[in-house]
Design a protein that fits this description.
Blueprint (H helix, E strand, L loop, with lengths): L3 E6 L4 E6 L4 E5 L10 H5 L1 H4 L3 E3 L2 E3 L8 H6 L15 E2 L7
Parallel strand pairs: 3-6
Antiparallel strand pairs: 1-2, 2-3, 4-5
């Protein structure tokens, strides 16, 4: 089972994640930080940077955490992942005018 081994906060709401298979991925988590448990994480960059890893997913000191499958796969993992992520980047689309 693929899980998160290390997490480092980057610019904005980006996390750089090292996975259990050694792959490194970046995820923009801005849209995932909803609800009262994420209030401090959303509003205080110091709290956001205190991200750590427990039991294969990211957590913050106030007890907030995110589902590792959502971070790794962008949703539930495939039933039989033929090709686990090696180096993916998931970012919000920019509006081009």
């Amino acid at each position: 089972m693929l899980r998160i081994r290390e997490a480092v906060a980057g610019e904005g709401f980006t996390l750089r994640l090292t996975l259990s298979n050694g792959a490194v991925v970046e995820r923009d988590i801005a849209d995932l930080l909803t609800g009262p448990v994420f209030e401090e994480v959303r509003t205080d960059p110091t709290i956001l940077r205190q991200v750590s890893v427990e039991a294969g997913t990211v957590v913050w000191p106030n007890g907030a955490d995110l589902d590792p499958d959502v971070l790794i796969w962008g949703g539930l993992p495939p039933k039989t992942p033929a090709n686990p992520p090696q180096a993916l980047t998931l970012k919000l689309p920019s509006l081009v005018r």
